[in-house]
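Record minuted for everyone:
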Amino acid sequence: MKTMLPDDIERAVLVGRVWRNGVIDGPCVVAVRNGEVFDITGHAPTMSDLLERDDVLDIARSAPGESLGSVQQLMAHALDSAAAVGAHIGMPRLLAPCDLQAIKACGVTFAVSLLERVIEEQAGGDASRANVLRGEIQAIIGSDLSAIRPGSPEAARLKADLIERGIWSPYMEVGIGPDAEVFSKSQPMSAVGQGADVGLHPDSKWNNPEPEIVLAVNSQARVLGATLGNDVNLRDIEGRSALLLGKAKDNNGSCAIGPFIRLFDEHFTIDTIRNAEVSMLIEGMDDGFHLAGASRMREISRDPLDLVSQVCGRHHQYPDGFMLFLGTMFSPIKDRDTAGGGFTHHLGDRVSISTPSLGTLVNHVQRSDTIAPWTFGVRALLSRARGAASARAVPALQTRVQQAIYPSLAGKRVVITGGGSGIGAGMVEAFAQQGAQVYFLDIAEEDSLALQGRLSTQAVPPAFVRCDLTNLDAVAAAFERIGPVDVLINNAANDDRHKLADVSPEYWDERMAVNLRHQYFCAKAVAVGMQQRGGGVILNFGSISWHLALPELTLYMTAKAAIEGMTRGLARDLGPHNVRVNCIIPGAVRTPRQEALWHTPEEEARILAGQCLPQRVQVDDVAALALFLASDNAGRCTGRDYFVDAGWYGA
C-alpha cells in the first residue's frame, strides 16, 4: 500500500478529507503523520480554511487531533469495496481532498494534446476518422510544437500560416496564442476521491482519462501544494462542438482528485512539479486490455505559475481558493476494439494515475447515471457546520473587533517586531488601517511577504523588513534603514516548552536573546530619535504565563517577568523626554500557533473556566489595546502593565 503514497512518505506533509460516520456523520479535514491519520477539523473546519492559514504547515504537522488509524488501512478501505463490510465497518472513507474551492482546469497545455484536440474538432466527434486526420495534420504542421512559445512572434507567424492552409482552430488559439484555455471543470464539493467510480456520460462512445497534476491555490493566489487528478474526457461530445465543453466536462463523477494534497515545504516545491512525470495505467476488467503512458511536466507549454496567474488576479478572485488541473500530454490512441478505432473506455476500467512525489490515484470507470449521485454540496456542509457550532458549550461572540479610529496615529511611523504572523500580524493590519506607516520586523519571510501582499491595497501599505532580532548588528542596521520611529511595539517572542534537566547555558542565552534582550536594544535604537522628535511610545509585550506559574515555561516566564521590570525602568528614564513606555500582557490569545501547538479542546475548557469572561481573547482584542496605548488618548499612561486576558489572572 506504500506504493499508493509518496515515495518519501516519511517527510511528506499530506492533508486530505474523510467522511466519518457515527456522531460526526460528515466530512472532516485530516493530516497524515508517521503513517497515522489525524482529524484536525477543530483547527480548520474545511480544506479551504486550512489553506488560508499562515501556519498551515504547523497545523498539518503538529495540531492536536483524534487519531483515525493508519493511512494504510484508510487507503485499503478506499480501494476495496468489500472493506466497507466486515472488519472495517465504521472506518472513515477517503474523499477528494478539496471542498469549497472552485475546480478549474487548463487545456491544451502540451503540444501532443493540442494536436489531439484539433483532431477531435476536425473529426466532428467521429472516432473512426481520427487516425487518418492525425496523419494529415502531422504532415502539415508536424507533431512537435513544444518549441513554439505561446504568444511569441513565432507562434503568430505559425497562426498566419495555418489560417492560410485552412486548418486553424480555436484549440490552436489557446495552444499557441497568448491566452491559456481556462474552464470550470466541475462544481465545488463535486469531485470524487481515491477508489471512487468516475462517470462517463451515457451518450459518449469515444472517451479517455486525462492524468494531471492539480495545484491547490488559496484565495491570495498562493500555491500551497499539489495532488493528482483525472479529468474524464469525452472526445466525441466535445469534438462535435467546442460549445459542448460544459456537457462534456461537468458530469456526475467526471472529476477525480486525490488521494491527498501534499503541501509545499523544504522537500517539495513548485520545481518538483515542473520536473514531475505523471504515469497512467489503464486496465480493462472485461477484456484484459492494458495501456500505459506518461505525461512529462517539463514539456508543458506554459509554466504552472503562469497558468495560476491567468486564472486568478485583479481580473478574477476566488475567495474560497481553487484547484487547478494543469493539463496533460497523454492522449491514448492505441486501438482497443477495432483496427483504426483508437482508444475508448470500457465500463469497469481501472485507471491508476501516479507520480513518485504524490503517490497514486485509482478510480474505476462506470456511467455517470449509474454511479452514486452527488448529494452532499455546499449547503449541506454549511448546515452541518451550523449544527456543530450550536452544539458547542463555548459562547460564540468571536467576531472581529471594529477598531476605533485614532486620528493621532495617522502618519505615525510604527515599528512592530514579530509582525509576520499571530498577534504581530493583527497589529500590523490594525495600525495600517489607522493610516500609520508601519514597518514590521520578522525572519519568517513567507508569512511576512504574504501579509505585505494582502495589505498592499491600504492607503499606506506596511513594509516588511527582514531582521533576525537575536543579531544585534542586524537590529541596529534595520533601525538605521527605517529612520525615525514614533511608536515601537516589542512583540516578538517564542514560547517553546522546555524541562529543567534539558536547559544548557547555551539554550539559556538563546532563549534570553529571543525573548528579552532585543526588546531593550530595540528601545535603545529608537530612544534618541524619539527624544529629538519631542516624544514617542514604546509598548513592550509581557505574558500572563509567569503570573499564573504555567509549567515547562521557566525561561520564557523569566524573560517576560524581566520585561515588566524593564518597562518600569525605561518609563522612568525616558519620561522626562515625553516618551511613554507601557507593557501589554495578553492572556490566552487565540492565534494559529497556539491553536496548533498547545490549545487542545481540554486546554480550551480549562482556560475558559479560569477566566471571568467566557470568551477567548482574540488577536483583535490585543490590537485594540495597542492602538489605544499608542494614541494620544493614552497620553498620561506610562510605566504600567495592561492586561487583556478576559479576567484570567486574579479571577
Remarks:
- Residues 36 and 70 are 4 Å apart (CA to CA).
- The chain is about 35% helix and 20% strand.
